[in-house]
Structure formats: structure tokens, C-alpha cells
Protein 1
Amino acid sequence: MPTEIGVIEGFFGRPWTWAERTETLRFLGGRGYGFWLYAPKADPYLRRRWREPYPEAELAELRAFAACCRDADVRFGVGLTPFELHFGFDQMAKAALSAKLAALDDAGVQDLAILFDDMKGDVPDLAARQAEIVHWVGPRTKASRLIMCPSYYSDDPVLDRVFGARPAGYLDDLGRTLDAAVHVMWTGEEVCSREQSVGHLERVGQALRRRPFLWDNYPVNDGPRMSQHLHLRAFTGRPAAIAGHIAAHAVNPASQPVLSRIPMLTLVEAYARGEGYQYLAAFRRAASEVLGEALAARVEADLLSLEDAGLARLGERQATLAARYAAFDHPAAREIVDWLEGGYAITGEALQTQ
């Protein structure tokens, strides 16, 4: 097993309710998940409006969730995205950041992630600028673990197309400049990596001068394309052998909180069984535990439609499936019906505004 498996709640689109979040925490906390990083893209006070203070009602929800984490013996963390702070880290920005850190301390953070993803990064001294911010934060937070996500958190060239060409030597500069105690997130060879290999993680670890803190973008299904599909199948391409090459394994869940639990359970089994892991058997065990036998069998029979075909290709089957799952009195079945009716669809505009 790796040091820890946990949740990075870092997807775009419709956020989970606090009740859904808490129920999922309690479910996963007793099944091998040891930390929770709260970082939904829909929380504006952690992202585009990060300089504004949290409304007291929202801060109270964070405090209550932190207490639930403590009760479940799960580390509570927050991911803060200070939009384009590396372009102007002046006194006003420092004052706003200091106030936000104090609010998060008040909420009870144990882990603090400073996230530089989803923003422009094509400046030559990007690594130095971001390291300066992270080092400034270090002594000003009560969090006992400090994590950062680079602007270029994968080898995937899509990041260069969207956010500008990454500076030459960015990863090496970041590894050399950052304090060794700071963890660095990485999603793999792609933003949504099909596999995580020992060879790749070793190479990234050498550049960063530390084992990467793996941000795994499965079963996340946000964005205009992925929101058309439910990600239900068991984890594959994450061999237990990677455990010694990562600092932790954080899973970004799907928009559907109950359905997410199916693949998320299988990751724990993949590490526990090692070379004996069988993904279909793992899916069946997890689906039965989450859904019950009857609904699990129904979902397995419909995987080609729900996961592979996606909404755009269902045609007349969409109404048939909706009626089929409406007959089940189960929250996961209601999530499937909601998805079939477009309740989880995400537009390109959401990616630009959240």
C-alpha cells in the first residue's frame, strides 16, 4: 500500500452537497481512504474570488466537515487556487492571502494545497515565482502538510495549448527550488492518464527531487466530453508496484457521489491484492457493496451504454434506461436517471468561469 490513499475533490461542474460529501467521507473513511482535500471548482472563494472572505455560513460548513473528518480519522485538507497570483505577489495580495489562510486555519485544515492549475503559466521564471508563494505560505498556515500543484502538472501537451508553452526546465527548476518538505502534485503522462507506470513516476520523481503526490483523474467525468459518460469500471493501469514511487494517491471522483464509490473501492483492492488483482472481479465486489446485488447486476449489464456509448449515442435507449433505473429505490439509481436527463451536463463556459 502507498503511504495514503485519499480524495481530491477537484472537479468542474455541479458540486456535491455537504450531505453527499459527508456520506461519501464516512463510507470511504472506513475502507482505506485516509485524507480528503476539499477543492471543488465550483467554490468561488477558493478560486476566482479567493481574495474575498468566506461567508460565515460557508465557513461553518467547512468547520462541520472538518469535524466529520476527525471523527472518521481522515485528514481534512483544502485546495486553494490563488488565480494568477504569480503575476502580482504584492502587499495587497499577501494581505488577502494571509486572511484566507487564517480562515482556513479556523476551519481546521490539516493539509493545505496551493493549486496553480487552470491558469496562464508561460513566464520564464514561473517555478521561482510559485516557490516564493509556497514558501511564504508555509510559516503562515497551521496545516501540518503543505502541497502544491504546478501549472504544468502533466506531460500532456494540452496544457501548453491552453495555458501557454511551459517554461524550459520548469519541473526541474521547481524540484530544485521548492523546500523538500513540500509535496508536489502530478497527474501522470496525461491530464487523465490511462496508466501510471513505475518508469514514468521514477522519471518525474527524479526531476522533482521527491516522490510525486499523485492526483489521479479517474473516475472524474467533468467537462463537456466526459460528462457524457459515467465512469464506473474498476481501476486499471495502477499497479501496486507504483506505491514506492509516490508520496500519496489522491483520487478525483466523478460528479455522481454514490456511483463514484464503486471504482474508488477498487483502487484499495488493487493495492491490497497486488499482482493478484482482477479488475472485473473487483468491480463486481465493489458494485455489490455500493449498490446491492440486483442494482449491481443491472449496472454491469448496462456498462456499454452508461460508460462507453455516452448520452449522445444512446438515442431511444435513453428513455428506456431512465425508466429502468427509476424502478430502483436507491440513490445511485437516482444519480443515473439524473445523468440520463442531463442533470450533470457541463458546458465549456463552466470551465472558463469556475
Note: The first helix runs from residue 18 to 29.
Protein 2
Amino acid sequence: MTYPRAWLIWIIGVFAYLVAVSQRTSFGVVGLEATERFHASAAQISFFTVLQLLVYAALQIPVGVLVDRFGSRAMLAGGAVLMGLGQLELAFADSIPGGVLGRVLVGAGDAMTFVSVIRLIPLWFAPSKVPLLTQLTGMSGQLGQLFSVVPFAIILHAAGWTPAFLTLAGMSGLAVVLVLVLLQDLPPGHPAPKPSQGLRATGVSLSAAWRQPGTRLGMWSHFTVQFSGTVFAMTWGYPFLLSAQGLDAVTASALMALYVAAAIAAGPLMGSFVARHPLRRSTMVLLISGATAAAWAAVLLQPARSPLWLLASLVVVLAVGGPGSMIGFDFARTFNPAHRIGTATGIVNVGGFMAALLAIFLIGVTLDALHLAGFSPAGLYSLDAFRLAFCVQFVLLAGGAGAILVIRRKVRRQMAAQGVVVPPLLKTLAGRRRPAAERRRDP
């Protein structure tokens, strides 16, 4: 059932996530300013985001365990406090160590947010609403990226570095107040979670979540479709559009806003697809991965700068990867019991951000190496240098797709042993009515 206060609880959680996304992606539009402020190289600038994502990814599993133990309210409030402190540090930092400390705090607070919001949904809403609301959560959170692309960028260019980051810190403060005053962990009458039984019990829960092939399928799905858009939005998209493609700041900001709009538009469609065709969740992940590779190939193989329509097409494809990555969390939900959802969701969330930090770091190192070798006389962020550096993504896309195919076979063997058989794709496309058990769980 859906409880009366469920929508208020969800809105507060979504706002906290929106704030977290704005904090996470804010560095993506200050790459050129940060290079000047900190006198940093491309590898050093990439290190800011890599370390932030490393902290985020490293904390996902501990956060999943903690949110199962202490609830979403405490974790969301704590995460907002950490992000606010991180942005305060960054607002006044004028050296690389100070800036890195700020991003580490932001990464730690961000890590505590999404898993906590996702855990609220199956507790407060009927199961039939969960897939769509999961997509809407991710979609709504993308408005935070829109804030970093437009208002934050305007404040940055009009008022300067410090006022811009103080604005982000203020948003975190507002999130803390709303969460503590209005958010509840459990609906009325819902049994409280059992007290923790210590490290051994935690280890057993973590091991059980990992041994479930559906959890690992979710992790590799998230790994494969989420990272490329994150790389583009958080670090290298803005420099690529400005320096390599020669766009002006207004056009580049418009494309980044298109990224957010496309993700918002794709979210409900993806949620509806998952609810109607759970048998084809992994197939959709593979299709998105193939489209991502094709879009990048089309841009990088251009003999000169890409036309605006092609760059816009790339942005739209990358944006679809955000809602597509939410399929991984649906695997975690459907293949794990309720008391283990936070842990399983944390495992899944590690995937995309590990891939993103690898890609961001390797792209930065490649750009620096090419510049030092004299390959890019046009500058550190030249088009030729980006062409080679961005090829790192094809390796990660291929590796992730291969892992999905391997683990999907294990999942389907497990389901077959339980009497659930995945029909041929053509039958699904023809709209064959599926048994309830198939509609509930299958990939």
C-alpha cells in the first residue's frame, strides 16, 4: 500500500538528492577556472573529481549497511552536513590540497544520499509504483545538475568563485533542516529494523547480497551505462565543448542543459519500460551501451569539429544512460529481500562511479601525456588530444557489456531452476502475456 505521507517523504528525499547532484556536478563547469585558480594541470584537475568519486564509490557499501541499520533520515542529514562543509572549504581554498579536501567532503556526503532516498521508496509506496518512482527520483535529481549548469555558472561568472560555492553550501544547510523536520524513516505501524548483531551479521548480509547474481548484474549494468555521461557532465564535457569543439560558453551551457532535459524526459519512459517488460531490462542496458559507443565514435571520427546537431545527438544519448543506469537498482530490489536493499543498492552504485573515476583519471593522464609529448601543439585541450583520450571509454563499455552477458546467463539459470523461463525476444515484442512471476522478477 501507499501511505498518506508518502509523497511528502519522497519530495523531501528528492530535494536532498537534488542538492547532492548539484554539489557533485558543480566542479564540471569550473574546470577552466579551477585550472587558473589552483595553477593545475589536466591530470591534477581530473584528480579532484577522481578522488571525489573514489570516496563516493568506496563508501557505497558501508553506507548501504549503515542505512539499513540507522535509517534514511540520519544518513541524509549527515550527508548534507558533510557536503555543506566541503563547499565551504572549497569556497575559500586557493591551493590544490585545500580544494581536494573540499571535494573529498562533498564526495563523502554525496555517497550517503542516493542510497538513502532509494531505500525510502519501497517502504512508503506500493510495489507497483516502485520502478517508476525510482526513475522519477533519478530524473528529479538531475535538476540539481541543471542548477550547476545554469544558476551556479551564472553566479560563478557574475560574482566569482567564493559566492558561487557559498550558495551551494547554503543549499546543503536547507536540506539538513528539511530532512530533520519533515522526513520519517518508516510509515506508521511499520516494524522497526532489528538491532544490529555486530560485524559478523553485517558480513553475512553483505556476502549474501554479493552472492546473489542479480545484485552483480545490477552492478555491471550501472557500471556500463552510467559512467560516460558522468565523465561528460562532471569533468570533461565542458572543456571538450569549449576548447576542442570551439563552442562559446552560452552554446556549451545550452548543450549541458539539454543533457539534463533529455535525462528528465527519458526517466518516465525508462520506468514504464521496466515495469512493463522486466524480462528485457538487461537487453535495454546493452542497447544503451551500444548507442553510447556509436555516438562517441560518430563524434570522434569526424575529420574536423563536429556539427552542432551531432554534438546534441551525443548529449542526448549520454543523458539516456542516467535513467538507464537505474535499471541496476531495480535488479537489486527484485533479487534481494527488503532488509538487504540498502546493502545491495550500495553494491550496485559502486559500479558506475568506479568506471567513471577510472575514465576521468585516464583521460586526464592521457591529455597530459599527449601535451608533454608535443602531440597537441594547439593546447592541452585540443581536439586531436581529446579524440585519443576519449577512446578510453570504448574499453570500459566493451568490458562492462561482456560482464553483463556472462552474469545474465547465471541469473537466467537461477531463474530457470525456480521455474521461470525467459521467452525469446520476438515474443516479448509481440506483446505476449507473461505469467505474474515473470513480470515480477526477470531481467
Note: The chain has one domain: 6-185+205-425+436-441.
